[in-house]
Amino acid sequence: MKGSMLSAEIAEPYAEALMSLAQSQNQVDRFGEDVRSLLSLLDSSPDLQEFLGNPVLSAENKKAVLRQIAGDGLHPTILNFLMLLVDRRRIIFVGGVLQHFQALLRKLNQTVLAEVTSAVELNDAQRQAISEKVKAISGAHQVELATKLNPELIGGVIIKVGSQVIDTSLRGQLRRIGLRLGRAA
Hints:
CATH architecture of the largest domain: Orthogonal Bundle
Largest sheet: 4 strands, mixed
Number of strands: 4
Distance between the termini: 41 Å
CATH class of the largest domain: Mainly Alpha
Structural class: alpha+beta
CATH superfamily of the largest domain: N-terminal domain of the delta subunit of the F1F0-ATP synthase
Helix content: 55-70%
Order of helices and strands: HHHHHHEHEEEH
Shape: elongated
CATH topology of the largest domain: Peroxidase, domain 1
Number of domains: 2
């Protein structure tokens, strides 16, 4: 708990500074795309996370790897920002910084994040229906879906928007029926 609070205290000001840069350069959407791809890369590569967080490795080694990863695809300001995190020994918090930046971007765009857990992969029509439902519930202009698979749900979905949870899964329905039967007995 203490570590996550410290992480948030460090990540938030850096994310806000990055957002300020994005807005001043009229590059909010571009920065958002770069941040999304960096987060995807970090999520898919625990080795990279470990490498960046290793205090024994030199800053120059970390910068070289980041330059190689960035190539020509990353906006130069984002790359410079990553170099700043390395110089200030804050690169270990890069995931938190990028996630907080995404939260700021969602707020700016009046977008909500809906975490959807389903038993099977959702098709486009199902994704669209869930997006419309979440828009109606939350009043948001846009919805960003983060999907996960959980075969134990049997069928249906669980949608989490902020602190609100909508459980339409078969497992959830069976649990609720079991609770009602238990009370009736």
